[in-house]
Write a structure and sequence with these properties.
The chain is mainly alpha-helical and 434 residues long. The chain has 18 helices and no strands.
Length: 434
């Protein structure tokens, strides 16, 4: 689990590193050419479109070839992408390399949730997912902190080169230490390997897998991958989960891309504006860890809805002219209601589906959801470029939070109540709606 967390730290770093340097591009054409707010928004979206494509591809591949292979490939891919991006000299090259990097990031995000869910103990699945996916806001926080400390010394190229470090650190370690999923091996009928790994790691074989294997010589019933995800009673919740994730990621990427620039325009200096980004992601990290305990106890659905609502209220409070100390506290709460909520969403989705569609389910959440991520930087760029006042921009984002609450409440649950356990894993093809 620690390796998976570190991998997502670099994902979070990639999420925010562009936001830490976008003001540099807007004010100095010597780096990658002239960059307007609209162009900056589009450039911010290239990586997210790559994440979308990479996640959807990994969802199909990961349920077929395994979680481990996809994750190792993703570490290598996005590390090389970050290093090459640091060499770009035009906005076009920068954009295309950001897209290519996003392919690896998307594959990693889509696969990690499935692997963690299959190793997490019962009753603590949401907490384990929150810890691992907490790597994203932790990496985001790290990017903001390093920008405050190092940006003026190493420049934007140095900031991107830091994102290439997994190639020489995490990848070799994961190659030797990261196991395959016991549940995935069993779901593919590789029972001998699954039993050996189960004994080695202490992770039990899923009971429904053992029963089916004994009765029918197969490991898991129902279609695998996206064929199972969009079949039967999974169809409606899958669509709503995707829309919920997309709404959350509009908020996440709008704020992580544009918050420093918005605070610059509000009168704060460069380091002060980056401090808001630091607080935003600190609030996301701590808030998600605390909320995950409630999600394991009461079920993720009411907790995710409450977090969306909390973020909505906090965004409105940002418009009321509070003193700096209160403003920082409110920004931290905004972090819980945006990036922190997204962390909980990944855990919600990872525990919602059966084993042989889980990778596709997380991929759908991360991939289709990235349509919101693509739109986030563009939305901010359009609003700023059109001359919207700071308060008006926060009101637009708050309205999206309301949409997130509504979508979350629409998600059906399985036949078992979410009241006292982690989100259930439906077995077979059926999911009772209602």
């Amino acid at each position: 689990m620690s390796l998976a967390t570190v991998g997502l730290v670099f994902d979070g770093y990639d999420l925010v590193v562009y936001g830490t340097v976008v003001s540099t591009f807007l004010r100095d054409a010597s780096h990658i050419g002239t960059v307007t707010p609209a162009i900056a928004g589009v450039l911010g979206s290239y990586a997210l479109f790559g994440v979308l494509v990479g996640a959807l591809l990994a969802g199909s591949v990961g349920d077929i070839v395994g979680r481990r292979k996809v994750m190792l490939f993703a570490y290598a891919w996005f590390s090389v992408g970050m290093a090459l991006t640091a060499l770009s000299t035009t906005s076009a090259a920068f954009g295309w390399l950001r897209f290519a990097t996003g392919l690896g990031v998307g594959a990693l995000v889509a696969t990690t949730g499935a692997l963690v869910s299959e190793y997490a103990p019962k009753g603590r699945k949401n907490l384990c997912n929150a810890i691992v996916y907490g790597g994203i806001p932790l990496g985001s926080l790290l990017a903001a902190l390093l920008a405050i400390l190092l940006l003026q010394h190493i420049g934007w190229r140095g900031m991107f080169n830091i994102g290439a470090l997994p190639l020489f650190t995490l990848l070799p370690l994961a190659y030797f230490k990261m196991p395959e999923s016991v549940a995935w091996l069993a779901s593919r009928g590789r029972m001998a390997e699954a039993r050996v790994l189960s004994e080695k790691t202490g992770v039990e074989l899923p009971s429904e897998v053992v029963e089916l294997a004994g009765q029918h010589g197969i490991a898991d019933e129902g279609k695998a991958g996206f064929a199972g995800l969009f079949g039967g009673h999974y169809l409606f919740p899958t669509i709503v989960l995707g829309l919920m994730s997309a709404t959350g990621l509009v908020l996440v990427y709008s704020l992580n891309t544009w918050l420093p620039e918005l605070m610059l325009r509000a009168g704060f200096n460069a380091k002060g504006s980056l401090s808001f980004l630091l607080v935003l992601n600190g609030g996301a990290l701590l808030g998600a860890l605390l909320a995950s305990g409630a999600a394991d106890r009461f079920g993720p659905k009411p907790v995710v809805a409450t977090c969306f609502a909390t973020g909505t209220i906090a965004l409105i409070l940002l418009t009321l002219g509070f003193p700096l100390a209160a403003l920082l506290l409110i920004v931290a709460i905004v972090g819980l209601g945006t990036s922190g909520t997204q962390t909980l969403i990944y855990g919600f989705v990872a525990n919602y589906y059966r084993t042989n569609v889980r990778g596709a389910g997380v991929a759908w959440c991360a991939g289709f959801g990235r349509l919101g991520g693509v739109g986030g930087p563009m939305l901010g760029g359009l609003l700023i470029g059109a001359g919207f006042a700071l308060n008006s921009i926060f009101y637009v984002l708050a309205a999206l939070g309301v949409v997130g609450v509504i979508l979350t409440l629409l998600i059906p649950v399985s036949g078992a109540s979410l009241g006292t356990h982690a989100a259930p894993e439906p077995t077979g093809d059926a999911l009772t709606v209602g």
